[in-house]
Design brief:
The complex is a heterodimer of chains A (114) and B (354).
Chain A (H helix, E strand, L loop, with lengths): L4 E4 L5 E6 L2 E6 H6 L4 H4 L17 E7 L3 E6 L7 E3 H9 L1 H14 L6
Antiparallel strand pairs in A: 1-2, 2-3, 4-5, 5-6
Chain B lengths: L1 H14 L3 H4 E7 L2 E7 L5 H16 L6 E7 L21 E8 L7 H14 L4 E5 L7 H4 L17 E3 L2 E5 H4 L10 H13 L6 E7 L6 H9 L4 E6 L3 H16 L4 E12 L6 E2 L6 H8 L4 E7 L1 H8 L4 H4 L4 H24 L2 E4 L1
Parallel strand pairs in B: 2-3, 4-8, 4-9, 5-7, 5-8, 9-10, 10-12
Antiparallel strand pairs in B: 1-2, 6-7, 10-11
Helix pairs in contact in B: 4-13, 7-8
The chains are: A alpha+beta (114), B alpha/beta (354).
Bound molecules: adenosine-5'-triphosphate and magnesium ion.
């Protein structure tokens, strides 16, 4: 599903996708650490990198990619993540679990959000 | 990265000491500068000039490929820094891009593209036609023209104007007899060149004649430009339909709406006895359209005149206006433009940056 509006909050730390009456809201940090780029995801699950220290990250700009995705450009220079509408929906649906897993992964690896 | 930023701001200062104060935001990424400027809505004309001036100046910075300046005004924050479609600068003033595709070769994409483009123009729209088939371009032959394109003052390639359509094809850019051996990256850059370096200007529709299949060119197009939709051409034959299905699948994956299927060479009308015969099977594409839940846009009979007109560089829709085929193309143009009107309002998200 294609959102009607994609809204970046004033402090640039929160992205809202509006689909009619439903909304999904995700933080820049959440989107950054779950970037679908090969550089983060690797080419297999085993290669997935844990991105840490992104509590303060914000989104500088948003580009449409064709009709199927957006590219988010973060202020830490990360600009290779192409987020398809489908991926954004999956992220939003699984938000709580993905976040919990992320936090425990950070802990396991001795990393943190700052 | 950050010194480019500083350099850019210095350049702005040199141009006019007031410009740096207008900067809302400046981002440098992937060899591009994105700049948003505070704008006074009442002075749009002035700001548009400033924008062009700045884009030109900043593009001259070493290590920068392109510059995108957006004008923002605070009463309407809409689309402030939204950077639509990276790269495809030549088509920025094109309202709707529709591609004519098929999974299989030789089903009549090019024939359909040129006649459809002219038909849409006859409905009162300004139309361009991009021949994306860099392996086997057909448009120069279909319009009987091989002039070399001229360059604009800004150094961009000007489309060839023929039959009131703006045309571009790799066939205009390279000599006819030179071998067309394109490998992947070259194909992509040829397509990119036709999107970026050609001054398409303001157009209501840009029809894109695709190469057969579902390869690189299709994907590049899907990523580089916001397409309003795709028209799939198919013959009623089963094999072609399997390929058509692949074409449909591909467009679905990248979220490009399928405007519908055109069945080409659907029937043969005997020039002597005027009897119709279904040489390639009966209404196969129509049934397939139903199965796939996409619209059926119409059928074009197999018509010797159609091929002859094409071979002579004078599309049938212009040379035999009263023929069944010409009328069918006009009907299809009507459905396509109507569908695009319905789809385009809903399919492009607004990017709002507060
Ligand atoms: N309805 C028709 N009646 C008669 N001839 C036709 C018809 N449609 C197409 N043709 C002829 O069939 C041949 C192939 O058509 P065309 O070049 O348009 O196909 P294409 O799908 O663009 O091919 P390619 O995949 O090679 O790009 C041409 O000679 C054309 O004149
Ligand atoms: Mg062709």
């Amino acid at each position: 599903m294609i959102p009607e509006n994609i809204i970046l909050s004033e402090n640039k730390k929160e992205l809202t996708l509006e689909y009619g009456a439903t909304k999904s809201v995700m933080s820049a940090e959440f989107l950054r650490v779950n970037s679908p780029s090969a550089e983060v995801k690797g080419h297999s699950p085993a290669q997935k990198k844990t991105v840490s220290g992104k509590r303060a990250v914000s989104i500088n700009s948003i580009e449409l990619v064709g009709n199927y995705a957006i590219k988010l450009i973060f202020d830490d220079g990360h600009a290779t993540g192409i987020y398809t509408w489908q991926y954004l929906q999956e992220l939003f649906k699984g938000k709580d679990k993905i976040w919990k897993d992320y936090i425990s992964e950070l802990r396991k690896k001795g990393l943190n959000r700052d | 990265m950050s010194d480019i930023k500083t350099l850019a701001i210095e350049k702005l200062n040199e141009l006019n000491p007031e410009y740096p104060e207008l900067i809302e935001d400046i981002v440098v990424a992937n060899k591009k500068i994105y700049l948003s400027l505070k704008t006074d809505k009442a002075k749009v004309d002035k700001f548009t000039k400033i924008k062009l001036q700045i884009e030109k100046e900043l593009a001259a910075i070493d290590g920068i490929d392109s510059v995108s300046v957006s004008l923002t005004s605070h009463s309407d924050a809409i689309q402030a820094k939204a950077i639509p479609q990276e790269n495809a600068s030549g088509v920025s003033e094109v309202r709707n891009i529709i591609s004519v595709a098929s999974g299989k070769g030789g089903v009549g994409k090019s024939t359909t593209s040129i006649n459809l483009a002219i038909a849409i123009n006859q409905l009162g729209f300004s139309v361009g036609l991009l021949d994306a088939d860099v392996y086997g371009p057909s448009i120069p032959k279909l319009v009987g023209d091989r002039q070399k394109p001229k360059k604009s003052k800004a150094g961009k390639i000007l489309p060839i104007k023929k039959y009131n359509i703006s045309l571009m094809s790799i066939g205009f850019l390279v000599p006819e007899d030179s071998p067309m051996i394109w490998r992947g990256p070259m194909v992509i850059s040829a397509v990119n060149q036709m999107l970026n370096d050609v001054e398409w200007g303001k157009l209501d529709y840009l029809v894109v004649d695709m190469p057969p299949g579902t390869g690189d060119v299709q994907l590049t197009m899907a990523q580089r430009v916001p397409m309003s939709g795709a028209v799939i051409v198919s013959t009623p034959q089963d094999l072609a339909l399997i390929d058509a299905r692949k074409g449909i699948e591909m467009f679905k994956k990248v979220n490009i709406p399928i405007l519908g299927i055109i069945e080409n060479m659907s029937t043969f009308i005997c020039p002597n006895c005027k009897n119709e015969s279904h040489i390639f099977g009966f209404e196969g594409a129509k049934l397939e359209a139903n199965n796939q839940k996409v619209d059926f846009l119409g059928d074009i009979p197999l018509e010797i005149d159609l091929r002859e007109c094409s071979d002579n560089g004078k599309p049938i829709i212009l040379s035999k206006t009263d023929s069944v085929v010409s009328k069918k193309f006009l009907e299809i143009a009507k459905s396509v433009t109507k569908k695009v009107g319905d789809e385009s309002s809903s399919s492009k998200p607004n990017i709002i940056i507060n």
